[in-house]
Amino acid sequence: MSNIVLAVIELFLTVRDMGTSILESLLKVSEKAANIARVIRQDEHLIKLLVQEKKGAEKNPRFVQDFKTLADVLIQETVKHDIGSRFPDIVNHIFGEESNTFSNVLGDTITVQVQADQVATAALLSTVLSGDTQAAERLALEVHRDLRLEDVDMENLPQLNLPLEQCGIWIDPIDSTSEYISGEEAKLSANDIYKSGLGCVTVLIGVFDRVSGQPILGVVNQPFYTQHGSRWEGMCQWGVKFGDLSKCSASLLRNMEDDRAKVAVLSGSEDPNLKCRLRSAGYVVAEASGAGYKQLCVARGNADLYLLTKGSTFMWDTCGPHAILRSLGGGIVSYKRVLENGENLEEAELKYGANHTAEEQCSASHCNLEGIIAFRDRSLVHELVKILRPS
Ligand SMILES: [Mg+2]
Known about the structure:
With 391 residues, the chain is α+β, with helices and mostly antiparallel strands. The chain is 39% helix and 21% strand. It has helices at 3-42, 44-51, 67-86, 118-128, 133-143, 177-182, 272-280, 291-300, 315-327, 335-339, 345-348, 358-361, 378-388, and strands at 94-96, 101-103, 109-111, 167-175, 187-188, 194-196, 202-209, 215-228, 231-242, 245-248, 263-266, 284-287, 305-308, 331-334, 372-375. Strand 7 (202-209) and strand 8 form a beta hairpin. Helix 1 (3-42) runs antiparallel to helix 3, helix 4 crosses helix 5 (133-143) and helix 8 (291-300) packs parallel to helix 9. This is inositol-1,4-bisphosphate 1-phosphatase. One of its GO terms (biological process) is phosphatidylinositol phosphate biosynthetic process. Pfam families: Inositol_P (PF00459).
C-alpha cells in the first residue's frame, strides 16, 4: 500500500478515535475542574483567600484581581491545557468567560497558563498570589493531578464522529460564583430544585460547530452534588446531538412525571409580572440561582421551562447545557424573538461563535441579549406563546 493510502487510513482512524476520546477527555477534565473547586472550598488556607474581601491597603499590591478570579481562570486554563494538548485541532478555538491576563496598577501583566510541570505552574501562581507559596503549591498539585479513570463514569460512552477541526469550545469554569463563595447550605425551592447554595454551582463545557453555530456536545458538572460528612461528591452529565446522533447520560433518561403540575424555573430577580402570569396559567414557579443549574433542572425534568427575560447570560453559560437539551429533543431559543416577534423555534434557536481577541471575548457579542427559553418539550413553548404573547 502506498504511503498516501496509509496516511489517509491513519487520519481516518485518528479522527474516529478523537470523536470518542473528546467526550472521555471532557468528562475527565470537568471532573478535574470540579475537584479544584472542591479543594479550594475544603482547604483551610485556600478558603480564607476565597471568602475574604480585601479592601484598600489590604489589597494585593502587585495584582489587583481577587482570589475568586484566579480560581476561575485556573480552572478555565486547566480545561484549555488538558483538551488543547490532546486535541491540537481545537486548541486555538477554546474560549472561556475569564481573561487569563492579570495586571496591576504599575502596568505589569502576567498571563496565567498551565505550565509544563507542577513546579513551574506553582512558581507562576506564586507571582499572582504575592508569594503565597502554600496556596500556589496546593493549586498546582490539583492542576497537574493525573485523574484515575475510575474517578469518572466512562461506561457506555457512544462512538462519536465529530468534525473537531471545525469546532470550538466555550467554558464557564464556575457558574453561580456568589453561591460558591458564600457556600451556604442549599435551600429547596420546589420539585427538588435548589433555590440557592453549593448545589447550584456548575462547571459548564460546550463544544459547538463553528460552521453551523450549533452546540453539539455538552458536559455539566456539579461539584457539590451530595455531601458525605465533610466530603463532597459531584455529579456529571453530558449530551451530544450531531446529525442523526442523539445520546446523553443515562441519568437524564428517567421518565418525566406526567401528573405533576408544570414547573417554570426562574431567577429570583425575574419580572414579578411574568411570575404572576405563569402562575395564572397553572405553572408552579420555582426560583433558583445559577443559569447553568436552571438549564440542568430542565434537562433533568425537575422543571419544564427556564425563562429569562434579560440579557444576563453569555455563550459560556448556555453552550454546554444547550447541547444536552438538544440531545433530549429540546433546545434554547431567544425569549424576545419567540414571544415578542413571533418567530418559529428553529429560527430563534441560539447559535454560537467566538471573537478571538481577549477584549472581544467578554464583549456583548457573546451575550444572549434577548433573554432565553430553555425547554425539553417544544409543545410547551408553543403553549407559552399563547399564554404570554400580547394579542
Ligand atoms: Mg456563568
